[in-house]
Design goal:
This protein has 283 residues and is an alpha+beta fold. The chain has 13 helices and seven strands. The strands form two sheets. A five-stranded antiparallel sheet has the order 3-2-6-5-4, sandwiched between helices. A hairpin with a 4-residue loop joins strand 2 (24-29) and strand 3.
Length: 283
């Protein structure tokens, strides 16, 4: 586990979320292991579904897919689960490091019980579940409008940000991931490369590449270049009077001509054109 969670504070936050929305919420680590939830028990219909081995496996696969989508978009993902219930998931990031997930779910978003039952019966028909018991349990579900769930998902996104801001979920500071993030944030505009980063972390270049690829989806040189390009865009947009050579220097490029070449290759246009195109309009 790369993360640390303050379960006591998180428990209070989850309870507050539920008291406002009446929607069950859970928090899990980056490996999708549930750490806390409120209420701490599943609704009856979900318990019945997960009581079946096929139902349990289908739930795990559905959750795993939802996690993958939320990570890919780095945003809250709202969807209908394999059993026909509505859920939403929001990834928890510290910098570029995934440390866990917040999820709301088990929501019955149908106009009435009979219509909902027809859909859920069809979706769960191959799971080996006692239909009579499942239907009886579903009759206790509170129908919820989809617009209400979308609003709750927006709140979930805010709760995820608040969770990180208040350090209810954070990284273990001695981990390579954390040290790499800290090093790059402090040194990416300086003369640095894979050798310097490897030496700082005390690992080989192969291990550094694997770490960088896992965190960023690319090698360390590409990550540094991407950070410099982002810095260049900020300077071009926010400091109109800064000469282009000054932009290059502040982004860690001693060779101005090389900076021009890299920027055009990465961004698809010249520095001057990008600056003109992205200057804020002053009225």
């Amino acid at each position: 586990m790369v993360s640390f969670f303050d379960i006591e504070k998180l428990g209070e936050l989850l309870k507050d979320f539920y008291e406002i929305t009446k929607i069950r919420i859970t928090v899990s680590d980056e490996k999708q292991e549930e750490l806390a939830s409120y209420p701490p028990f599943l609704p009856p219909y979900c318990s019945i579904i997960q009581g079946s081995q096929r139902g349990h496996m289908a739930c795990l696969a559905c959750d795993r897919h939802a996690c993958e989508v939320s990570v890919k978009t780095r945003s809250t993902y709202t969807y209908q689960c394999h059993a026909g219930l509505t859920e939403a998931i929001s990834p928890l990031y510290v910098g570029d490091v995934l440390i866990g997930y917040l999820m709301i779910g088990n929501v019955f978003t149908y106009p009435d019980h009979e219509k909902g039952w027809r859909v859920i019966k069809e979706k769960t028909g191959e799971l080996g579940i006692d239909e009579k018991k499942l239907k009886e349990a579903l009759m206790t579900a509170l129908p919820t409008e989809e617009t209400y769930v979308r609003s709750a998902a927006q709140i979930l996104n805010a709760v995820a940000s608040y969770t990180i801001l208040e350090r209810m979920a954070t990284l273990k500071e001695d981990l390579l991931e954390v040290r790499l993030e800290s090093y790059l944030d402090s040194h990416y505009t300086e003369k640095t490369d894979a050798t310097a980063v490897s030496d700082y972390l005390g690992i080989g270049k192969t291990q550094l590449y694997e770490l960088s690829n896992r965190l960023y989806g690319c090698g360390i040189a590409e990550k540094i270049r991407s950070m410099r390009m982002q810095k260049a865009k900020e300077l071009l947009r926010e400091q109109r009077d800064l000469p282009l050579a000054g932009v290059a220097e502040r982004c860690g490029f001693n060779d101005y001509n090389y900076f021009i070449t890299v920027f055009r290759r990465e961004v698809g246009m010249t520095l001057a054109r990008w600056r003109r195109k992205n200057w804020p309009v002053i009225k």
